[in-house]
Amino acid sequence: MPEVNLNEEQIRVKLKDYYDNFTQCGLEAFLVKKDSPKLKRMSLSEEPNEQGKNFRTILKEMFFNILGEQYLSQEAEYADGRQLADNQNKYLIFEQGENFQPFVYLNDDNEIGDFSTADLTDAFGLVFQLRKGGNTIWLYQQLWSIMVPNKKKTNIMARLMQFENQVVFSEQNENLLTIAKKIDVLIIDNCLITSNTTLLQKYFGFQDYIYQSAQQTVQSIVQKNIVANTEKMTEYISRGKTKYARKMMRIGSSRVLNLTPEQLIAKINSLARWQGKFNFNQDTNQITLNTYGEVESLIDLFDERYTRSDVTDTEYDTDVKTVALPIGQMQ
Question: Which of 56, 191, 31, 25 has its CA nearest to residue 117?
Answer without folding.
Answer: 31
